[in-house]
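Run log, item B.
One chain of 515 residues. Sequence copied directly from the ordering sheet:
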Amino acid sequence: MTDPIVSIDLDHVAVEPGGQASVTVTVRNPGTIVEGYQIEVVGEGVSQWADVLPPEVSVYPQQEATAVIVFSPPGGTGAPGGTWPFGIRVRSTEDADASAVAEGDLEIGKVFGLQAKLLPVNSSGRWNGRHVIQITNWGNSPVTLKLSATDADQALGFMIRPDVVELPLGGTATARLWAKTKSPTLRGTATRIPFTVAGERQGAPPPQAPPTPYGGSLDRPTVDGAFNQKPILTKTSVMVAVLALLGIGGGVAWLLTHPLVEESTFAELGPPPAPAAVKVDALGPESLRVGWAAVPDVTAYTVVEVLADGSRTGSKDVTATDNALTFEGLKPATEVCYAVQAKRDKLLGPFSEKECGTTAALAASPSPTDGGSGSPSESASTGDPGSPSESGEPSQEPTSATSTGPGNVPVNPSKVPTGAATTANPDFKGKWFAADFWDPNVSIFDPADRLAKLQAVDKRAGIVSSDLYPQITLNLQATNWVLFIGPFDTRAEAEAACPTVKKVQPGCLSIQLDP
């Protein structure tokens, strides 16, 4: 058998998403017998959008036959924009080895869907305000945007970091914006200065049409914001300054008319007494809390574990302002005894009488019909942030491992929803998360409800207060709840998990929870 001779009238075809384009393929039979040929389109993606009319032709010796290839890519963002290579393969129906291929390129037009959001929309300050820009790409092609900000009166100076962002398909990018006034005012009323942030596609021609309201055009996103400039001196600040001066003057006058009473030194006070009212309470199957009554005029406390033979081990120091310490990593249903000693500078007091406590027993694992969210003990053993104690409520005390760690800002337990973390997790350093956040003072979302719904989809879900991770505060003017899935080693993995977060939350960002 002889291979057929295949040619196409166009080797480069352009088509818009949702449209159609066609090429004509010519098949020549160089053999001596009548041949039947099957025609098919090969190429990733392209073959799914192509129809061959007819898919099989019969050609006499030394004659030609033609067929039409119709390309119909889906509309909207279903077909990624760009150039797609394809091949038209013609194969003999008598001998599969007798075949030939003609190659070409299909260029699919780009569909833009860029949306911008500014958080907060309005900022206030005497000198500058801070904002966060969020841009989402809902188009069918990756985009590189150059961000800039302007105000009509040129009363503000702007700094955007980063000012160039990369937006993959379906991706979201964030940048920080600082708006600084050029003319601070000493007194008067607050002035609102509006400004606009725009994203220009690199290499794109100047815009031909005016931007649409609320976010600009689909290929040039814009968003409006404002900086409320406050005067440097307000009535309240002047009053506070006057009262402060009066207070300082009164203090100086009192010192001049009253002799100082010599304070007692630690040496004169002597060693402190042993702490009283020592109590050991179980917080769960792996933790105990040791508390005691405060001792006056001390600089620190020392808590030790008392063994069965009376010896002491596991010494841990506590500042004078605390009178409780939590021990983690204990065995379930185990009795442990502790004693407390007060310190007055270098003077050590006697140890208290030992007090014992027993950790709780492990709870039974839930049945599969419980929704797959996992028992409290499972959450604690895997180290998931925000796991509740055995009672189902979040722990109200920071653990000893994190009570003195850098960046550990405990949250008020009375305001923490069930399942939320109360201390920063040092293992999150450098990791990535798929997350969304909202202001608890203005949002209608229930944190505990959102966490339960997300954990039903992905057991890696958690919720924390932004106070625990200052690096993700995003310069907002209020504490935010952060609902997340993670941790991940790379940003790409976090972005891939964003669709899961969006099943229960409107938005999603790839962020790092650095304590």
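Observations after the first pass:
- Residues 365-414 have pLDDT under 50 and may be disordered.
- The first helix runs from residue 235 to 257.
Flagged for discussion on Thursday.
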